[in-house]
Amino acid sequence: MRLWLIRHPLPAVAPGTCYGATDLPLAENPAELALRLQQTLPAGVPLYSSPLQRCRLLAEQLHPQPRFDNRLREIDFGDWEMQAWDALDRTLMDAWAADPFNFVPPGGEAVAALRARVRAFLDELHEETVLVAHAGVIKVCAAELAGETDWFGLRFDYGSLTLIENGVRRAIAVTCAAQSSAGRDTTQSR
To answer: Which pTM value belongs to this model?
Structure first.
């Protein structure tokens, strides 16, 4: 299976702010990014997206009939949402660092719950697919489909394109029309 993963564009939020499930607007219009991505993405492939507007707005530019799935939402940080990371209770932050997979922020969800819902979504895919999603969701996809063991530490830039095919994860450089329409492979990883 081929899975094309696109991280949403930059959201309009102050640096250093904890956010996940909050439905943030975008800092820029996604139209230009959509045009660049369309030069590389396969035509006629189903596109799924998180329903949060930072993903939804790009998905609507990329595909005439995107499908929105709540399982692709970013992790819910609960009471931590929209708080400065530096202002969060240090004791709770230490507890999260001690057990990052199972710790539940007050009123939020554990990474284990995020991984379970994304895994359930992936189990239903049987064809080449494009996802517009969040960094947490993309990390889970890398862990589940490419065998990434250090998936917590993976980084995906805003607007980045990643392809997972046959258990291999590749970052694809999105080029402008004057460059190759096939995109450019920049990394390989198992």
So the answer is: 0.90
